[in-house]
Design goal:
The complex is a heterodimer.
Chain A: E1 2-9, H1 14-27, E2 31-36, E3 46-54, E4 69-72, H2 77-80, E5 92-96, E6 111-115, H3 117-123, H4 135-145, H5 151-161, H6 166-179
Chain B: E1 2-6, H1 7-17, E2 22-25, H2 32-44, E3 50-53, H3 57-69, E4 74-79, H4 80-95, E5 101-106, H5 120-123, E6 131-134, H6 138-155, E7 159-164, E8 172-176, H7 180-186, H8 210-224, H9 227-242, E9 249-252, E10 259-263, H10 267-280, E11 285-290, E12 292-294, H11 298-305, E13 310-315, H12 325-334, E14 342-347, H13 357-369, E15 378-379
Parallel strand pairs in B: 2-3, 2-4, 4-5, 5-7, 6-7, 10-11, 10-13, 13-14, 14-15
Antiparallel strand pairs in B: 1-8, 6-12, 9-11
Helix pairs in contact in B: 1-2, 1-6, 3-4, 6-9
The chains are: A alpha/beta, B alpha/beta.
């Protein structure tokens, strides 16, 4: 079983990102469980989303305390909260950022990856620089870095699950996948 | 067809596949998406049903009852304070023998104001004469709604299909959406023996003098007693068509176990994972997940637990001044058995506090260490 925690801010589509990933993985016959932080979401406040992935049915319905990997949708959160809380040794940290991985100071037991999902999203006209909608781009990178699913499955999931700007979202996911 | 859907939408799909004809509901967190999707389905023609907007949950149930009396298959969904507001109408549904099916998202009662899960809302309605099913997965929610209509309409008793707030209502899982044609074959149209019609006038719910009232209640109880066998029969039939058996309880490795958890809702699935972990450590654990709560599956609970030395009942609810409700029910089921297990009552997870695998470890340690419970209620994870 793989457990991933997403960090974002309310309004950025973090929960949708986990849902798109779940859709893509389910298409390849995986069992998935995706859930948001249980509570009241506020625009701009730190939010969480979680996903469990397995090749057999998932019975564990308790919270994820020790994720295998974390995905940081909003880079400002790296300074604001401890995004490594509970992260397993050897865990991957995937950050939406124009910086290089080595520019982030995390313990050596974690492996850092970056993808400039904001740039990709804005160039594909998904939101604005102030309020980019980066979920499809970030999921494109996650799928590649963690070798979770085929690009075609993700593209299919976006086609079915993203009602607005489907072509732009598809292109953003493909670009992030190729760059990651 | 497989789809990744949230628990709330699992209720909507269940109602859609059952071809509910009248839906009346009032939105309340965390139930809102149930109603949103159904209203969309009614608007775009996916579901040929009348969607009645109402000003309260009391009215939602009243509208369902009127429609049910006229012979329509009805659906509603609510949660916590909304269910409490419906309370009077719940008695009308069961007393009037109207087979409404309702989704309830288990949310803690206010105050303190909460939107998170526990079972006190639905368990406060225990004695209203409704059948109650507690679900542990989104698949089980879809399947149970369909089965609930079959049972309810056969016996003319309403059913509640219950799932945990957020832990299930907002959790996405892979669900096999049953084929409509197969559901139609499994669940024929609602055809009540009596119905309101201007061509053939009847009165429902009229004054009932002492010479008749008691017999109405006797008949309701006698029909309630038929539910367990009907759950088995319709559950097996469901399995034949859809490959998934829907029973009163789930017996996971209880036979020959030294310790059995009694659980319900999402914690009832987490418990399975804990059982696997304990078995790896050489502890023979099992999990008896109660799915049908009303009527209580006495026979199965008795048969399974009377062969077990230790039973740990986990309640995500409390009957103030007494115990957890499932604990009371299990003890009463065991009462007549000549050999009885030691039964321990634990309370955890009120108001949405997580029931983690670690919590089951604490329950296990306590139960294995003590021959008998040392306290009336053993609280897990409470800051005393």
């Amino acid at each position: 079983m793989i457990e991933i925690r997403f960090h974002g801010r309310g309004g950025q589509g973090t929960v949708v990102a986990s849902k798109i990933l779940a859709d893509a993985l389910a298409k390849e016959g995986n069992f998935v469980q995706a859930y948001p932080e249980f509570g009241v979401e506020r625009r701009g406040a730190p939010v969480f989303a979680f996903i469990r992935i397995d090749h057999q049915p998932i019975y564990d319905k308790s919270r994820i305390y020790n994720p295998d990997h974390v995905v940081v949708v909003d880079p400002t959160l790296v300074e604001a909260i401890d995004i490594t809380d509970g992260l397993k040794d050897g865990g991957y940290i995937i950050i939406n950022s124009p910086k290089k991985p080595e520019e982030f100071k995390f313990p050596d037991k974690f492996k850092v990856f970056t993808v400039d999902a904001t740039d990709i999203a804005v160039r594909h006209k998904l939101g604005t620089l102030a309020s980019p909608i980066v979920n499809t781009a970030i999921v494109g990178a996650v799928v590649k870095i963690l070798k979770l699913a085929k690009l075609e499955s993700l593209v299919e999931a976006i086609k079915e699950g993203v009602p607005l700007k489907p072509e732009e979202n598809r292109q953003a996911a493909i670009e992030a996948y190729e760059k990651a | 067809m497989k789809k990744v859907i949230m628990g709330n939408h699992a209720l909507s799909y269940g109602a859609m596949l059952a071809r509910a004809q009248v839906i009346a509901a009032y939105p309340i967190t965390p139930q809102t998406q149930v109603v949103e999707l159904l209203s969309e389905m009614c608007a775009d023609g996916t579901l040929n049903a009348k969607f009645i907007k109402v000003e309260s949950e009391h009215s939602a149930m009243a509208a369902c009852l009127g429609a049910s009396m006229a012979g329509a298959r009805t659906f509603t969904a609510t949660s916590a304070q909304g269910l409490a507001l419906m309370h009077e109408m719940l008695h009308w549904a069961s007393g009037g023998r109207m087979p409404v099916v309702m989704g309830d998202i288990n949310r803690a009662m206010a105050p303190g104001w909460s939107i998170w899960t526990d079972q006190n809302d639905s368990l406060s309605q225990r004695d209203t004469g409704w059948i109650q099913f507690y679900c542990s997965s989104n698949q089980e929610v879809v399947d149970t709604v369909i089965q609930a209509y079959k049972i309810s309409e056969k016996l003319m008793i309403p059913s509640m299909v219950i799932l945990d707030a957020f832990a299930l209502s907002h959790t996405y899982e892979v669900v096999e959406i049953p084929e409509q044609a197969k559901v139609d074959a499994y669940l024929p149209p609602f055809n009540p023996p009596y119905r309101l019609s201007s061509d053939d006038p009847h009165a429902f719910g009229g004054l009932t003098a002492p010479e008749h009232y008691m017999e109405l209640r006797y008949k309701l109880q006698k029909d309630m007693e038929k539910v367990p066998a009907l759950v088995e029969e319709t559950g097996r039939e469901y399995e034949k068509t859809f490959g998934r058996y829907l029973g009163q309880v789930e017996n996971y490795l209880c036979d020959g176990a030294e310790l059995v958890f009694v659980t319900s809702g999402t914690a009832g699935y987490t418990a399975r994972v804990v059982v696997d972990e304990l078995r790896k450590q050489g502890i023979k654990a099992g999990n008896l997940r109660i799915k049908l709560f009303r009527p209580f599956p006495f026979e199965q609970v008795r048969t399974i637990l009377s062969k077990v030395p230790k039973v740990a009942v986990l309640d995500r609810n409390i009957s103030y001044g007494h115990h957890g409700v499932f604990y009371q029910e299990v003890k009463s089921a065991i009462y007549r058995q000549p050999v009885q297990p030691a039964i321990f009552g634990f309370i955890a997870g009120l108001g949405g506090r997580d029931i983690a695998r670690e919590d089951f470890k604490e329950i296990t340690d306590y139960t294995l260490k003590n021959n008998r419970p040392q306290e009336e209620i053993i609280w897990i994870g409470v800051k005393k």
